[in-house]
């Protein structure tokens, strides 16, 4: 899938660079909107099919929700702080941070604002996933099990879950899954919301 | 406006997924359509990037910025969880003791 994702983006870049019909350009926004809605419906179905997540949270105790909450705050605050150094407006930096490592959705949403911002969101969140894959076992060993979920962000429910599970134990894997579901549900809401704060 | 729409669609999807009792066959088809929708959107995003040639020229800068953003997000997330992990750990130990 990773290969297909990269192939789709590169194929798109080549198409756009060489021969994208200019009369289509004005319809790109609409295409993205329709595609996003379709994608979100499937993401919702995916989340629903995981069974009643509320029962799982109740079993673990509501305190486990502190993990996704702190990851969300940390990701957004961290990105805004980074934005100060690289001269990026706080709403753009914060919105990229609110991608929580889910590079496809945050990048597509932000590419509606500008292709440049979409590219940055894509690259940032791809790098986040790569760093997560490398550092999760180290963080589990030297910092702590719950902390090992943090780099994963929204991917804690799928792509990075096997590594978290291997580096920690079954109950942490469950917390990781819950964290991923909660963060994934927040991405489509938080990214446009934080982005819109720039107008104030 | 968009945000409300997104939220409604997510909830609608979740209800379908939760109540629909979707069988294996349909599940597979959903996964296929989902992947196609995702790949199509990424293709369109690529088209937007390709249309703005200056982005391709500044990929080095964007890559560096992305690295800084990702690093700060991860470090702050780990520190954030570290602040609360002791609290959660205590709670889970209590549960284990009660289970015995």
Radius of gyration of chain A, in angstroms, nearest whole number: 18 Å
**Largest sheet report of chain B:** none
- Shape descriptor of chain A reads globular
Structural class of chain B: mainly alpha
| First-last Cα distance of chain A | 39 Å
Number of domains of chain A: 1
**Number of DSSP strands of chain B?**
0
- The beta-strand count of chain A equals 0
Helix content of chain B: over 70%
Q: Provide the number of structural domains of chain B.
A: 2
Number of helices of chain B: 4
Span between termini of chain B: 51 Å
Q: Low-confidence segments of chain B, ≥5 residues, pLDDT <50?
A: none
Describe this structure in words.
- The complex is a heterodimer of chains A (200) and B (100).
- Chain A is an all-alpha fold and 200 residues long.
- Chain A has 11 helices and no strands.
- Chain A has helices at residues 2-19, 22-25, 28-49, 53-60, 66-86, 90-97, 103-111, 115-142, 145-149, 161-167, 170-196.
- In chain A, helix 6 (90-97) packs antiparallel against helix 11 (170-196) and helix 8 runs parallel beside helix 10.
- The longest helix of chain A has 28 residues, at 115-142.
- By secondary structure, chain B is mainly alpha-helical.
- Chain B is built from 4 helices and no strands.
- Chain B is flat and about 50 Å long.
- Chain B folds into 2 domains: 1-52; 58-100.
- At the A-B interface, helix 1, helix 3, helix 5, helix 6 and helix 7 of A face helix 1, helix 2, helix 3 and helix 4 of B.
